[in-house]
Specification:
ATP Synthase, domain 1
């Protein structure tokens, strides 16, 4: 029996896969693997990489906080922010990282400092995921087969 996975942000549903084999979740307390029939869990998300596997294919997402509701047959990820690894902009992430690091070096007011730290963490996560994908080889996306009906 597969597991249904939904990834949602405040703006929209990012991803919906009714027949995933496994989900690796960046929980606040560490990475958590979820298979079908997992015990129910409600936990917070940290900054990290969400991986959804189906057969030999997988989807990867940069997750920036939120909560996850794990049930035996379904995982609902309510992310504060999320981006598909296929949509990560390496150039923009590098510029954001440099800008945030420069702001932190100069010293800025506390309210700006917090935002700069968040931008730096987001950019570093995007870059880390991009490098990981480059070194691990090609990743197949989970795409519904139109002929499977």
């Amino acid at each position: 029996m597969p597991i249904h996975v939904e990834l949602v942000t405040q703006e929209k549903k990012i991803f919906d896969e009714p027949e995933a084999d496994m989900v690796l979740i960046p929980a606040a307390e560490g990475e958590m693997g979820v298979l079908p029939h997992h015990a129910p869990v409600l936990t917070t998300l940290g900054f990290g990489e969400l991986i959804i596997r189906k057969g030999k294919a997988e989807e990867r997402f940069a997750i920036y906080g939120g909560v996850v509701d794990v049930r035996p047959d379904k995982v609902v990820i309510l992310a504060d922010l999320a981006a598909s690894s296929f949509d990560l902009d390496l150039e923009a992430a590098e510029k954001a990282r440099e800008s945030a690091a420069e702001m932190l070096e100069k010293g800025v007011p506390p309210e700006v400092n917090r935002q700069a730290v968040l931008e730096l963490r987001r950019a570093e996560l995007s870059l880390r995921i991009h490098r990981k994908i480059q070194t691990s080889g090609p990743i197949m996306r989970i795409i519904e087969d139109e002929n499977s009906n």
